[in-house]
Amino acid sequence: MTGDAVDQQFEQHVSRGTRDADEARRAALIDSIPATDESTPLAAQLAADARRRIDLAGRRFPRPQSTRILTVANQKGGVGKTTTTVNLAAALAQAGLNVLVIDNDPQGNASTALGIEHHSGTPSIYEVLVEDEELAAVVQQSSAIPRLWCAPATIDLSGAEIELVSLVARENRLRIAIDAYLEACEAEGRERFDYVLIDCPPSLGLLTVNAFVAAREVLIPIQCEYYALEGLSQLLKNVQLIKNHLNPSLHVSTIVLTMYDARTNLAHQVADEVRGHFPDQTLRTSVPRSVRISEAPSYGQTVMTYDPGSTGALAYLAAAREIAERGSAPLSEKES
Ligand code: ADP
Ligand code: MG
Question: What residue owns the CA closest to ligand 1's atom 10?
Answer without folding.
Answer: 78
